[in-house]
Amino acid sequence: MVAEALPWTIVLNGCAILLIYGLAVPFGLLGAMAPGSAFDRLGSGVLLALYSLPSFAAALLLQEVFSVRLGLLPLQGTASASAMASLSGATIDRLRHLVLPTICLALMGWAFVARYARAAFRAVAGNNFIAVVRSKGLSRRSAARHVVANTAVSLLTHVAAILPGLVGGSVIVEQVFSWPGLGRLYLSSIEGRDYPVVLGLTLLSAMAVLGGQFLVDLLYMAADPKVRDQLLGTEAGA
After folding, report:
1. Are 192 and 115 in contact (CB under 8 A)?
2. How far apart are alpha carbons 28 and 124 in whole angstroms?
3. Dihedral-angle region of residue 140 (phi above 0 means left; psi in -120 to 50 means alpha; beta otherwise)
4. Which residues, at least 6 apart from 100, have a Cβ–Cβ distance to it below 8 Å?
5. Exposure of 8 by Cβ count < 10 A (0-12 exposed, 13-18 middle, 19+ buried)?
6. Which residue, 18, 90, 113, 150, has most beta carbons within 10 Å?
7. What's the DSSP call for residue 34?
8. Angle at 19 between CA 13 and CA 25, to 5 degrees
9. Residue whose C-alpha is closest to residue 103's, from 12, 201, 218
């Protein structure tokens, strides 16, 4: 059961992380480069509202709007029987079923990362070296690249901060959208009082979070040579 459910959870969480950073970084950068603007004020209010919205409420709202009222996306499940005739149709149908649970799972993480990215970008944009390069004729777009480059490492470390939330949110999202992942298996095991499976899934979730944090630490070392040199120098001295 775990072997069948694990790939679905990995796909869902992986797409959610890509969506979080794909939207949060440009959103935070736009707000940081134009502080106090209408976009910045409106964006801050939207992020606060999304951060306060519970996962189950967001899931029901997305289903009501995009599935029930507009009929644009499937309500639940992973595939439609009518779309299995061809490979291309099956692939498109799988992607359509993935849209709503991915958006729902990514909402809170997106709001968290975007708020942090905005604050980090504003702190770097206010440094003297940005003012110097701007005074030498550097374009706004090139200055924005310098800002992103100097905050990339700190943004990378926040992957470890959102992993527990994604793992916990998967339980609710997978149940609401009938997604056959580990979260749904976890709830069904609790309802059936299958305690060995519950304990095994709890241990697996903890190991996944710790493994993700260890991977982020490795990426942090790879992205920042100073940290890598410092750690290697400390080990050599010891």
Report:
1. no
2. 12
3. alpha
4. 59, 62, 63, 66, 67, 73, 74, 177
5. buried
6. 113
7. S
8. 130
9. 12
Q: What secondary structure does DSSP assign to 90-123, as a single string?
A: HHHHHHHHHHHHHHHHHHHHHHHHHHHHHHHHHH
CB atoms within 10 A of CB 2: 12
pLDDT, tens only, 44-92: 888 888 878 888 888 888 899 998 888 888 888 887 766 555 667 778 8
- Burial class of residue 214, CB neighbours in 10 A (0-12, 13-18, 19+): exposed
Q: What is the pTM of this model?
A: 0.78
Q: Structural domains in the chain?
A: 2-237 (1.10.3720.10)
The residue-averaged pLDDT of 108-133 equals 74
